[in-house]
Amino acid sequence: MNDYAAPTLDALAALLARQALRHGVACLDATELDAFVEKGGDVLILLTEDPARSPETWDVAVILPEILKASGHHLRAAALMPATSRELAGRYGISRFPAQLFLRDGDYVGVIEGMLDWDAWGGAVARKLASPVGRAPSIGIPVRGPASDSACH
Question: Taking the C-alpha atoms of 114, 4, 86 and 25 in order, what is their torsion angle to the nearest 10 degrees?
């Protein structure tokens, strides 16, 4: 029998609070996010999900300081609780949690969704830091062609 219980949302909140105290990872809500991003520079925002639904969320939150260290501390980092993460996901086309959103001077750079093998993290983060800004692939409304059964003409 497995005695392992998935971490709770309260445990995730406590972990993110420890990451804030020990490693300077800002734990933000929706009202604080824009001000954090507007400070500029390269930003990594960890979007989380309830760890009972997405156990990878816990894993990525735990290793986030190591990801930052591997980047040479070139990133300002923040973490969002699940409700705020879901609000932000549509703006950036994020469909899988956890997700690491990379922004530069407030503009979209890219996203890493899910958990990676440790050997892949360094290269993935380095590619994001070297990438130019671009347009976020927001989750849009499907467009139908002229031959579709649309009520709009």
Answer: -70
CATH topology of domain 9-130: Glutaredoxin (3.40.30)
Instruction: Give which of 92, 22, 4, 105 is closest to 62, Cα–Cα.
Output: 22
Output the six-digit token pair for 127.
Answer: 């590619």
The token pair that represents 48 in the structure block: 């989380």
Tell me the domain boundaries of the chain.
9-130
Residue partners of 121: CB distance under 8 A and separation at least 6:
63, 67, 70
Express each pLDDT in 3-33 by its tens digit.
Answer: 566 789 999 999 999 999 999 999 999 899 9
Rounded to whole angstroms, the Cα distance separating 5 from 124 reads 31
Structure confidence at residue 147 as a pLDDT band (50, 70, 90): very low
DSSP state of 96: S
Report the largest interatomic distance among the alpha carbons of the chain, rounded to a whole angstrom: 60
144: how many CB neighbours lie within 10 A of its CB? 10
